[in-house]
Amino acid sequence: MKSRVGLSDDEEKITALSWIYVSTLSLSLIGSCSVVVVSIIKRRHLNEQAKPLLQLALADFLASLVLMCTAIINLPYEIWPFSEKLCNNGLPLSLAFYCVSFLLVIVYACESALAFQGWREKAEQEAFENQLSRRRRRFCLVYVIAWLVPIIGYLVYINTFRVMEATLVPANEPARMPDMTHVSRGPSARFCGSCILFLHLTNDSCTTVDPAHAEFIRVFTLSSVLIVIISCTVVYCRLQSCYRHYENTSMFTMSQRHPGGIWSSARYMILVIIFCWAPALVLICLSFAKPQIKPLFPLYVIQALSVSLQGFLNSIVYAWRRRNFRDAVLGERLPLMAYSNRAFFEQSLNEPS
Question: What is the pTM of this model?
Answer without folding.
Answer: 0.81
